[in-house]
Design brief:
Length: 187
């Protein structure tokens, strides 16, 4: 089985890659994260993934597009739904890439984070699978969060302090809690 794995950052990729490989599947990474702000943060995450992927022999498809203006245009009038938009944007792109390149399935390292809306991610992946016509590999990778954290510390990988968007950066410094949105409609 060949799986295209959307990667938000190297830290979140550690356990999912290990688990997928242990299950006997071939995994290729896919970096597309137009939500990350500021640009310096975007570059740090991208460069860290490049460093990590070289160390573990992971092939990665880099869609290195910093589309901050497009991201903001689509969430500024509905910032309470920004996570939903962000998940849909990245998982749709991953599903399209996977189908175009002949992968058997697609997945995401977002399923590893204990800080993301797991149900909303799963829903976005399943919707993309149905609409684009390629199966979504769902697995709750959160059980490996601690292991991935320890490995990333041992490898001295850059560890970010927020999900990446301008809103989460604000919440990081101001202590505001994210606004949960209704995930029933993803677009």
């Amino acid at each position: 089985m060949k799986i295209l794995l959307h990667i938000c950052c190297a830290n979140c990729a550690i356990f999912p890659i290990e688990k997928i490989r242990e299950e006997g599947s071939e995994v290729t990474g896919y970096f597309f994260n137009p939500n990350i702000h500021p640009y310096r943060e975007y570059r740090r995450r991208l460069d860290c993934l490049k460093e990590y992927s070289e160390k573990i022999g992971l092939s990665v498809i880099y869609r290195d597009e910093y589309l901050l203006e497009e991201f903001l245009k689509n969430v500024s009038h509905r910032h309470q739904d920004r996570c939903k938009y962000c998940y849909v944007l990245r998982l749709d792109a991953t599903a399209r890439e996977a189908k175009e390149r002949g992968f058997d399935r697609f997945s995401t390292t977002l399923l590893q984070s204990t800080h993301q809306d797991h149900g909303m991610i799963k829903e976005a992946g399943e919707r993309a699978a149905k609409e684009i016509g390629i199966p979504f590999h769902y697995e709750d990778f959160r059980k490996g969060w601690r292991k991935g954290l320890e490995i990333s510390k041992g490898m001295e990988l850059y560890r970010q302090q927020y999900c990446g968007c301008i809103y989460s950066e604000k919440e990081r410094f101001m202590g505001a809690k994210p606004i949960k949105s209704d995930s029933s409609e993803l677009k």
